[in-house]
Structure formats: structure tokens, C-alpha cells
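USER:
I would value a second opinion on how I read folds in C-alpha cell form. Give me a protein, with the fold worked out from its sequence. Write it directly below this note and I will take it from there.

ASSISTANT:
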Amino acid sequence: MRLVIARCSVDYAGRLSAHLPLATRLLLLKADGSVLVHSDSLSYKPLNWMSPPCSLSTLEPEQEQADAGVAEIWKVTQAKTADMLVISIHEILHDSIHELGVDPGLQKDGVEAHLQKLLAEQIETLGDGHRLVRREYMTAIGPVDILATDAQGGSVAVEIKRRGDIDGVEQLTRYLELMNRDPLLAPVAGVFAAQEIKPQARTLAEDRGIRCVVLDYDAMRGMDDSHLRLF
């Protein structure tokens, strides 16, 4: 992982457009190719980012940009969508590379692990005709919670969370990008399943063609029968 602290401005162009004015920020360039822009305030999440597969090129600024103080320009282009992240660097304050090795992945808490087990046993929750292939299907960047097939025999990758937020959608997106490169699996549909899915996560998932499923934990473990409720 490369860590760069720099005075920079950032522009994103694609399905959405965004601009970050000149400020000191942390730039993360990860081994999987992703580029993330962080600040020291506002949010623990990146202010902007580009997910892999993407390519980064370093450009010389034009004269007008150089006159404005730009020393170099990073252009990060998404291979599939042609979305572009342009980072105009005025000054680099720190630049280092660190080998982190292979991460064992997030260990799920008891509820998420139990949700995975219950959904595997009740895979028809995803729809009639769904069949379980296996739990913890391993990819090059970690295991996807459930691999299943739908009624037509198509592959379905399921990521399970207790509370579904944008990070979970990004995680499933990375799995799908890898799995869809496998001709034995492709095309692979995505399902983001959680007890609660935040509106922003649902919007992002649906924009990427990922289906959202809300799981009733109590009903799945036999502690609540929705058919007996008045409302």
C-alpha cells in the first residue's frame, strides 16, 4: 500500500460529478488497484475513491495549471465505466510504501455468522428455485458469504450484513468483478442481504444492478411468525 499526504484538489467525472477544493489529504493507493482520498475530519469514510479495475497515470500539468501551483496530475480511469478521478497535486508532504501481506478478512460477529447459516438453510428466502452451492465461496480477495443458483441456473453471489451500508455494497462489487471473470460462473448476479439496509447503500446497490433483500432474523430462527402479526 502506498500512503501519500499531499496538498491537492480532486475532481470526479462519470455518472456523478464531484469536486474537492485544495486541501491537505491522505491518498491511499492499494494493491488491488483502488485509489481512495481521505481527510482528517468530516468522515471516517473516503471523501472520494475509484474501485478496481482501474489504471493510474501521472501527467505533467499544463502551463495554466502549473502557474496555479499544480506540480503533477494523477488520472485514475475506471476500466469498465470510463469514470475518471483526477487528483491535482500541489505538494507532496509524505510518500511511503508498505507491504501489508494477505489479510485474513473480517471475522463476522455472532449474528452475521448465524444469518449466513440460516440463509444457507433457507435459501428459498431469495426466491423460488434458488439452490445453495456453498457457503464461504473463496475468491482471490476473500470469501463471499454464499454462492447459489437461481431458478434459471444462473450464479448468485450473496453478501450478508447485520446492517447494510455502502462499504458492504463496495465489498460485494469487488467480489462480483472477480467472479464475473470466471467463465464457469459468469454471469454472476449479486444479492446484498441484511437485517437493515441504509437508503444510500440501497441506492448504490440498485445502481450497480445488485438486488437488496431485507432479512427477518427472528422469523428465520423461528422466534417470530409474521403470519400471526396484526401489522
Helices lie at 63-67, 110-121, 166-179, 199-207, 217-220. The longest strand covers residues 84-97. The chain has five helices and twelve strands. Confidence is low (pLDDT under 50) at residues 227-231.
